[in-house]
Design goal:
heterodimer; A: 327 residues; mainly alpha; 10 helices; 6% strand; B: 300 residues; alpha/beta; seven-stranded mixed β-sheet; four-stranded antiparallel β-sheet; 8 helices; 15 strands; 30% strand
Chain lengths: 327, 300
């Protein structure tokens, strides 16, 4: 069964591996150019009006590198969905469409064994490719943005903070969890629809919807958010992820903390001007909810565990669908 | 005598239509059984249920005494199945299709499969999609037979084969039965070719079993009566089918008959003529009971 699965997927796997290696090679080249350009620019005068031809040329090169870096920052976002759909959607659906399951189910192995071995072999390959890209991404995102943006904040992207959306999704271990989930989703929907096309299409839609919903509604609450108020508000940097602004009951206050009380208090304090002292007298404060940079790994593990659990459930559904199939 | 395949009250419904209904039949072990019937009669439905690809809506089907469960493995090793779609991995080479069989089965006779394909001049490194329909059917057959099953279920195995290939296949099947006691159940439209090969015949018509009997008994029990067009039909005979032309009347009758009257001839019908007569008369039924090994009653 291992041989059969490999034989059926070898071309697709080779192409995917080739593309991933090409992307990795590109990332290494861009990193190299980036380092060279920023080191050279560091020797240019701080006053840009005093730049000569060489510095201007270097600056042009640096901008060009930055354009490429901009594309690389976005690329890993697509990889999980692509790998999941390409390998997952046809895993069961292609065999159902072409009726080759009739051949597979009348040899010497049971349907469950056929599916489980197939799923595990292809899933391992997909996860391995994704892990490779994730490892390189972690290295790349850690190095590329820190130097230049500190020196020329107006030209290069702001300092990367790993915990913020957009960067959280392409670093750490979650990209591998996303890929695993997309693969399981593709397989399950393919088995359900019995068609590669519809299985793949719906997988992309559901995957995007899940990612967006989870990021918006679940991730902020994996760990209880911190709260700060006063002069620390509205300050960028510090590497934290600002979830939102709002009111909360002051911890330790003896005044009630129910939502109804909080709402009434806010209304009371609206006229004439909402002031911290009015709020404080009601035992309420206004500030920002945020996840500090130190919560990064906790959020990573929490999100990865959720996606892996969902993938396991989808695997169970796929087994059920295959056992249920009738010619 | 044990039954290689036994169906009791077997039926399968597709939404509102019954593909097969009230099917009671027994395929004797070690026999070559022909399954004939018009399109849509339920032959493929029956074979797919026997192979564990479909679940019956009602009734049961058993192979060598064990009920067939689609998710079970007991029957998989003992049954070889050739579907009418001849599913193969089109991108694979012929040699790789044999490798599939050897990887997925516990018993595998690679040498005989290679010999079979070699005699047909089908190269092992040809890609399946580049082969003709008949050649693909032969590859599918080779994969099916090389796992050395005790029961072979073949859905129209000779349909896409040239006449020479058909003869070769039927002879090979008889050889399997003789050497290893394999039971063969094959469905076909070409009844004249089944006649020298099959020792048991099942006719499916309108999703039901119309007739199940040994071919020898069938041929012994039926007579073709040919007489002048105007003559009345002898009343004692059980007439299965009547064909009238302006010049003569032809009757297929069952049972013992008195001596032919003037102008009448009694002829031995071919199996083809018997089957066609039954198919044209859906009300005629003849189901011979094959006593199971543990029955205390004698066979009728």
């Amino acid at each position: 069964m291992t041989w059969l699965t490999w034989r059926q997927h070898r071309v697709l796997f080779a192409i995917s591996a080739g593309v991933i290696f090409a992307v990795i090679a590109w990332m290494v080249v861009v990193y190299h150019d980036y380092t060279v350009a920023t080191h050279a620019l560091a020797r240019c005068p701080t006053n840009t009006h005093r730049w000569g031809v060489n510095c201007n040329n270097l600056f042009g090169t640096a901008l060009h590198v930055e354009d490429q870096a901009g594309v690389i920052r976005v690329l890993p976002w697509f990889v999980p969905a692509l790998l999941g759909v390409l390998f997952g959607a046809p895993l069961v659906a292609a065999e159902l469409e072409r009726n080759t399951v009739i051949l597979a189910f009348t040899q010497g192995i049971s349907r469950s064994r056929w599916l489980v071995l197939r799923w595990v072999v292809v899933g391992t390959g997909v996860v391995a490719l994704s892990a490779l890209l994730a490892a390189v991404s972690n290295w790349w995102f850690g190095h590329v943005d820190t130097n230049a943006s500190a020196a020329y904040p107006s030209l290069f992207s702001p300092t990367v903070t790993r915990i913020q959306p957009g960067f959280f999704d392409v670093t750490g271990i979650v990209p591998v969890a996303y890929t695993f989930f997309a693969f399981a989703l593709g397989t399950a929907l393919g088995a359900f629809f019995r068609k590669v096309f519809w299985g793949g299409l719906v997988t992309v839609v559901v995957f995007i919807a899940t990612r967006v919903s989870f990021e918006h509604w679940v991730r902020p609450h994996i760990l209880v958010a911190n709260f700060r108020t006063g002069t620390a508000l509205y300050s960028p940097g510090s590497g934290s992820w600002i979830i939102g602004f709002g009111y909360r009951h002051i911890p330790g206050s003896h005044l009630p903390s129910s939502a109804a009380y909080v709402n009434n208090s806010i209304n009371d304090c609206l006229r004439p001007n909402e002031s911290p002292s009015c709020l404080a007298s009601h035992g309420i404060q206004f500030g920002e909810f945020y996840q500090p940079a130190s919560h990064y790994w906790a959020l990573q593990w929490g999100e990865a565990a959720a996606y892996v659990a969902a993938a396991a459930a989808l695997f169970g559904l796929t087994v059920w669908a295959v056992r249920r199939w009738r010619a | 005598m044990t039954a290689a395949l036994q169906a009791e009250g077997l039926g399968r419904r597709y939404r509102t239509k019954w593909g097969l209904r009230d099917c009671d039949l027994t395929v004797p072990e070690g026999s070559v059984t022909g399954l004939v019937g018009p399109n849509g009669a339920g032959k493929t439905t029956l074979l797919r249920m026997a192979a564990g690809l479909s679940r019956p809506t009602e009734g049961t089907v058993s192979i060598f005494g064990e009920p067939v469960r689609p998710n079970g493995t007991a029957h998989l090793q003992r049954v070889g199945y050739l579907d009418q779609l001849r599913p193969l991995y089109k991108g694979f080479r012929v040699g790789e299709m044999l490798a599939v069989g050897s990887h997925l089965n516990t018993k595998w006779d690679d040498a005989s499969a290679r010999k079979w394909l070699d005699e047909l001049d089908i190269p092992l490194d040809a890609r399946v999609r580049n082969l003709s329909g008949g050649q693909q059917a032969q590859v599918a057959l080779a994969v099916c037979m090389a796992k050395q099953p005790d029961l072979l279920l073949l859905d129209e195995p000779v349909a896409s084969l040239d006449p020479l290939a058909r003869t070769r296949l039927l002879q090979a099947l008889m050889g399997l039965v003789a050497e290893r006691g394999t039971t063969v159940l094959l469905s076909s439209h070409i009844i004249s070719e089944l006649e020298p090969v099959c020792d048991y015949l099942i006719i499916l018509s309108s999703s039901r079993v119309q007739l199940a009997a040994k071919t020898d008994d069938l041929l012994a029990e039926h007579r073709l009566l040919v007489g002048p067009a105007s003559e009345a039909v002898p009343s004692e005979a059980q007439v299965i089918a009547t064909t009238r032309t302006p010049r003569q009347t032809t009757l297929l009758v069952r049972g013992s008959l008195p001596a032919p009257g003037p102008g009448w001839q009694h002829l031995q019908p071919s199996l083809d003529e018997v089957v066609v007569a039954y198919l044209s008369n859906p009300d005629a039924q003849s189901v011979e009971e094959v006593a199971p090994a543990n029955s205390s009653d004698g066979a009728p």
